[in-house]
Design brief:
The structure is a single chain. The chain starts with 27 loop residues before the first strand and ends in a 25-residue tail after the last helix. It has one domain. It is low in regular secondary structure.
Length: 129
């Protein structure tokens, strides 16, 4: 999504899809505190930054951390954790993103996999070219 907070990384459209995750539900950008910037996914950060991503610390969960690529609405971590679609425009989000939560958000359990959709572990496959 363009606007006051453009995406960094490898976006392929204006709804936050990227070369790594380009499915119809891949419409969330995440704010990485280490760069103070929005990225479509962790792989976009890995490919374009000169450092390892730093997960958002729990004491910053009340700040905007996720952004809908359809309408631009931002969400705090608790807000994003509690939904499967955008509270602003109702665009559905990819449930498989939960598998990468530990890369974006400080996780406090032993497995590093606890998040808002723990029953879903795998990312959706990339669409064919």
């Amino acid at each position: 999504m363009t606007g006051p907070h453009p995406l960094r990384g490898c976006p392929v459209d204006d709804q936050s899809r990227c070369v790594h995750h380009g499915g119809p539900l891949d419409v969330v950008a995440l704010h990485l505190v280490c760069c103070d910037a929005w990225f479509p996914c962790h792989a976009c950060h890995e490919e374009t930054a000169d450092h390892t991503a730093v997960p958002r610390p729990a004491d910053r969960f009340d700040e905007p951390a996720a952004r809908c690529g359809v309408c631009g609405r931002t969400m705090t971590v608790p807000e994003y954790r509690g939904v499967t679609s955008c509270p602003g425009c109702e665009a559905s989000f990819n449930p498989g993103c939960a598998a990468h939560a530990h890369l974006y958000f400080e996780i406090d359990d032993d497995t590093g996999r606890r998040w808002h959709r723990p029953r879903l572990e795998a990312c959706s496959p990339r669409p064919p070219p």
